[in-house]
Design goal:
Elements (H helix, E strand, L loop, with lengths): L15 E3 L5 E4 L22 E2 L3 E18 L5 E17 L5 H8 L4 E4 L2 E5 L8 E10 L4 E14 L12 E7 L9 E5 L5 H9 L1
Antiparallel strand pairs: 1-8, 2-3, 2-8, 4-5, 5-10, 6-7, 8-9, 9-10, 9-11
Amino acid sequence: MADNNTTINPDNVTTGSPVEGACAFVSFDPDVTIPTDATTDLTAASSGFENLGELSEQGYTLSNSTEVNKFKGWHGKTLLSEVSGEEDTLKIELVEVMRPTANKLRYGADAVTESNGFVSAIEPDGLPKQIVCVVIDELFANGTKQRTVAARAKAESVDDEAHQKGSLLVYGMTFSLLADETGKPYHKYRAVPAADDDDDDDDDNG
């Protein structure tokens, strides 16, 4: 159904779900090539990105908070309001806590000792001070792929690390999204799914 200015299109309603396989990536390289589309393959070693593994069922959350100055008249009514500051944050929970990449993100790349994919030591020194690029891929209900790219993410806080009998161990983290060279805290890119060749064939065969 084509969109116009008079109709409601239910096809515009969607849910989000992770793409098949890897859906969350990080690069610790300050000179990595930041993706500017939803189709670049980040699973290739040459991409400079590493797989963060599975996220919790909560997925991820983007938040925006603002500080507003309100100016009132003598009678107490607000006459003018101005946004004095904004902050964007990204919240994720990593569940593959044995994965070296997840540990490097949670504790800092310099705090983790690993060999052949096994973490043998973690020596934390407060919040990770590294600025990283975080990329998250998801699929909408109609098959459209969306890629969220936070080029400059820095850990703002970490959740309590609850070690409880029978409970899933997760690394919960909140990142401040710093402005990149374009002045934006993050970018979203979408790739429209290709037309179904089988449907085209059916139409041709009439």
